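Changelog note: in this version the structure field was regenerated for every chain. One regenerated record is shown below for reference.
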Amino acid sequence: MLTLLFVAGLALAFAIPLWLWNRFLQDKPSGVLLGFPAAWVLDEWYRSWLLTGFPWLYIGYSQTGTPLGSWAPVTGIYGISLWIALIAATVFFVLSTRKYYWLPALALLSAVGSGIWLDKKEWTHAVDGKQQSVVLLQGNVPQQMKWKPEQREAIRALYRDMSAPLWQTDRLVVWPEAAIPELYTPSHPFFIAMAQQASSSGSALITGVPSLHYEDSGERIFYNSLLGLGTANGFYHKQRLVPFGEYVPLQQWLKGLLDFFKMPISDFRTGPANQTNLDSGVMTVASSICYEVTYPELVARQARDADILLTVSNDTWFGSSIGPHQHLQMAQMRARENAREMLRATSNGISAFIDHKGRVTSRSPQFERFVLQGTAQAYQGRTPYQQLGNYPVLILCAALVILTARQKMLAVFN
């Protein structure tokens, strides 16, 4: 029943903006050609923050590897979605009116032609001599076993043994989200040992881990975190938590219902905004944990002064579905938007090295224990999207909606 309610709520997130379009815009040509694309993009945007957001399945991701995707560093994902919706609207308009047959061709040629031109432009520059050897570890621990207390020592041994032959001066070793399924504290013997082992070889270790902290009042708080050890340093706490996975929206009203169903709930704390980026010992790393990589502005804000992007994830939740492939595609789009390389370390695939144009240069197989090695290149500079965010596209869409709705709304209110 709770799953049904959740899906119904997401359905309303799609339905409400498009009902408004149908009510005020759809009965005139400008409402179809301009109002529909604008309403579609505003719907995608509003889904990105409602109840902390569910920014999945934007139509712009379909262009991750095409010339149209070259708009990413200029407008971000919403600008690409606007182009696609505009092309679709022109096709519909021509089919329904049987005239202006040149419109779809004009829209398509404008989008693709400008994308080909934009693809030739370098928005950032590689920093000479600033490279780092990187190893991404994929432990492939089954989800149904991972959190059993009796498996803890085996999982510690797994990552310790996989890392043992990899320690090397100036090398970065990355473990995935919550690789070690126990709470990190500064006195934890395993993490102390790993920090010493990495330091003694001049290596950096960045790992995902749930972490325990204390407020001044003595209250315990928990974060889903990334931690730098060895020559790496810093903490990053996840800022966008998964609804009903890591926290419960409107928990104060739903607590009685959850108690009735005897549902255990996670209670992670949201990480603070404007956290300092991690340091890999060689490069500054803009981090995102799992679901966070789907938030364009969050990643762009953290990437402005970083050398490279890093995302870690536990995609075992998705099983053999299309989810991990979609997740990888969204990480590719973040690389394009920020014109920086992306490292993606996952628990059971797909781990990948992604270049600053969003292309996967190497990747792991799924559902296998795997060590993926490569070299990361630092990039500096800011893309237009990093500087301006979503404002240009959202202002344009709002203006199109107002212009196409003005007469209809006046008639309704008069």
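Spot check on this record: The chain has two domains: 2-122+388-413, 125-246+268-382. The longest strand covers residues 125-138.
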